Q: What sequence folds into this?
């Protein structure tokens, strides 16, 4: 999925009350800027004053929506999660009767999403601050990863019923496949290695082959 571009509004509301759309765009800009500052400086060193100044707001305007910095931080992470989530319908759209082809397309979408700008920003803020806010890792899992695992487990169960896969616990297998195909490849990019499209494709095909060799009836 393509990343939602960072918004820097070139037009500010003029005199008078802003429209609902203008207010929402300003709010999204506030959360965008806040995330960038939290990533750059860390939670502890980032101040409400700096965030407000970066978007031309007053502290009073920010505090009218968020009672404290912790609430603002969680809202920035929530927006980042919403931008990172892949709609399940996108996975359904690449399904076919060919399980190998379906898993390959699934893996391409999920890995591309993990190493997209939105995915990398989210993973970096989770890595940096989850010791202080363990709930943000739970948010990411429950709203995104868990939904993907549920979809994949359902796909595997359907193929089990059709006899193309042997009996096994589909939920565990789905989690293992997702970890195998995304975990190591995405981790390197999170740590600063450049994305390698050819290497990703080789990795995906290897993982799909290994998984199916263990999952098909013998």
A:
């Amino acid at each position: 999925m393509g990343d939602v571009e960072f918004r820097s509004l070139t037009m500010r509301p003029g005199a008078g009350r802003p429209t609902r759309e203008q207010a929402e765009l300003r709010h999204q800009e506030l959360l965008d800027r806040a995330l960038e500052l939290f990533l750059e400086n860390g939670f502890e060193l980032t101040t409400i004053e700096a965030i407000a100044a970066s978007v031309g707001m007053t502290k009073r305007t920010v505090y009218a929506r968020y009672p404290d910095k912790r609430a603002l931080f969680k809202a920035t992470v929530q927006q980042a999660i919403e931008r990172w989530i892949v709609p399940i319908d996108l996975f359904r759209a690449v399904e076919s009767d060919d399980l190998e082809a379906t898993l390959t397309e699934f893996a391409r979408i999920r890995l591309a999403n993990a190493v997209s700008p939105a995915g990398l920003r989210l993973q970096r803020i989770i890595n940096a601050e989850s010791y202080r806010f363990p709930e943000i890792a739970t948010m990411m899992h429950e709203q995104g990863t868990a939904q993907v695992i549920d979809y994949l487990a359902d796909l595997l169960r359907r193929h089990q019923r059709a006899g193309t896969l042997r009996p096994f616990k589909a939920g565990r297998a789905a989690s293992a496949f997702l970890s195998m195909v995304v975990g190591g490849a995405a981790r390197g990019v999170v740590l600063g290695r450049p994305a390698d499209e050819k290497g990703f494709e080789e990795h995906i095909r290897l993982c799909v082959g290994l998984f199916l060799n263990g999952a098909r009836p013998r």
In short: The CA atoms of residues 20 and 26 lie 10 Å apart. The domain at 20-75 is CATH 1.10.10.60 (Arc Repressor Mutant, subunit A). Residues 134-162 form the longest helix (29 residues). The radius of gyration is 21 Å.
